[in-house]
Amino acid sequence: MVSRVIPVDPFDLVVFGATGDLARRKILPGLYRRFVAGQIPETSRIIGSARTEMDAAGFRAFVAEAIEEFLDVKKRDADSVARFLDHLHYVAVDAKGDGGWPELAALIRRDVVQAYYFSVGPSLFGDLAERLHRHGIATPNSRIVVEKPFGRDLASAKTLNATLAEHFDESQIYRIDHYLGKETVQNLMAVRFANILFEPLWNARHVDHVQITVAETVGVGGRGAYYDKSGAMRDMVQNHLMQLLCLIAMEPPYRFDPDAVRDEKLKVIHALLPVEPDDIVRGQYRGGGKKGAAPSYAEDVGDPATRTESYIALKAHIANWRWKGTPFYLRTGKKLRGRASEIAIVFKEVPHSIFGDEEGWRENVLAIRLQPNEGMNLSVMIKEPGPGGMRLTEVPLDMSFAEALGEDGADIPDAYERLIMDVIRGNQTLFMRGDEVEAAWAWTDPIIAAWEARGDRPKGYDPGSSGPEDALMLLHRDGRRWREIRE
């Protein structure tokens, strides 16, 4: 099976913060891959912009180095890189001043799609939005892309929304969450709503519980200063895990339309019950304890008294007819045993087993792997081959995208590639709406306020483990257990 490539309309894409880490690692190499795939028309232009003084030749050399560093040699060649670089331009601008803006205005074309990627800190969103209008660059058809963090609480999210709304309509604002661009996340919607097989079972009558896991093997690294003001709750749960929960739990939209999908996601967030203190566990990774060993979280962020969590696990409930009584267990953390992002739908056992108390009995589980090795796995019970009676064993019905789609189809576009192309198309389905962001913070803020008021300290856990022991107990007391995080 070969994936189809549908070209977008010609565009001018301005990447503010073009010399930053995100642009270098993801945005610019991703645009090159879309160019090689034939999705970007030859008349399109990519304009880098930052405070750094640089000419077009310097920017092209910068992008060429990024492509060489972050793309496998099999995914690039000198001729295509040279052709891609011909589409690049650069203008140095001052986000808080007027320097460079007239030059940028003179470069932008009015007869193509205009998109502006704010690959900068949220403190500059308002300045960029205001200057795009003051200098007559943005039009009613322009689109802006804003990166997370979109606020650090409800009040700051409302302020950011209001600031952007002064200059752009909601239909022009694309709040990007790269998890929604992953192939498997979108396939989750296809599995649910394009097949009659699962949707009749997708409710509290048949689903025992749901687990959402995003595990990382790395620590905070060079992000320590930012991360210590954020923590796992703000950095991962409020956005990434919340979006995954919404896609699992939402009702079928009346059609696959941006606002129809986001309306249903918003209903899920509004239906989330407050989380009880006993239903949440915060953790912080320890150090190796020996000279030369890996540093602890506190050492990584340079604050021995820090109470910021690098791990969080919680139990959430959705108060609606579909999910009443079905718990959703969410966990994410750094320096864990393996790197894995997975959604597991754990179905209930059969009402009555005709095979008696067969040892090794397992529930059916639909496991959706977001990374690595994107794919889906459905575990079912069958008879163990051979004589000797009816012995049951669990086997997987496995669909790895790399195997199912073949060599050509396995080269799945990165999430950023897909989402940027959706911006050019004007498709907001996989982007968060302003009221979604605010509703997520409205649910998250009381949880954070409660543990801060109690003065809770995160539980310590060893690097390479599955997290704090208390997190294991969170499921154990419900008669359940976490799925294994594989190395």
CATH class of the largest domain: Alpha Beta
Strand content: 15-25%
- What is the CATH superfamily classification of the largest domain? Dihydrodipicolinate Reductase, domain 2
- Average predicted confidence as pLDDT: 91
For the largest beta-sheet, the strand count, sense and barrel status come to: 9 strands, mixed
Q: Give me the side-by-side strand order of the main sheet.
A: 14-13-12-11-7-10-9-8-15
Q: How many individual domains?
A: 2
Protein topology:
Layout: E1 11-16, H1 21-36, E2 45-50, H2 56-70, H3 78-85, E3 88-92, H4 101-107, E4 113-118, H5 125-134, E5 143-146, H6 154-165, E6 173-175, H7 183-193, E7 207-215, H8 224-227, H9 231-249, H10 258-271, E8 280-285, H11 297-301, E9 311-316, E10 328-333, E11 340-347, E12 365-371, E13 375-383, E14 392-400, H12 401-404, H13 406-409, H14 415-425, H15 434-454, E15 459-461, H16 469-476
Parallel strand pairs: 1-2, 1-4, 2-3, 4-5, 5-6, 7-10, 8-15
Antiparallel strand pairs: 7-11, 8-9, 9-10, 11-12, 12-13, 13-14
Molecular structure report:
- Helix 1 crosses helix 14.
- With 487 residues, this protein is α/β, with parallel strands linked by helices.
- A hairpin with an 8-residue loop joins strand 13 and strand 14 (392-400).
- The protein is globular and about 75 Å long.
- The model has no long low-confidence stretch (mean pLDDT 91).
- Helix content is 35%, strand content 19%.
- The protein folds into 2 domains: 11-147, NAD(P)-binding Rossmann-like Domain (Rossmann fold); 180-409 and 434-476, 2-Layer Sandwich (Dihydrodipicolinate Reductase, domain 2).
- The longest helix is centred in the C-terminal third of the chain and has 21 residues, at 434-454.
- It contains 16 helices and 15 strands.
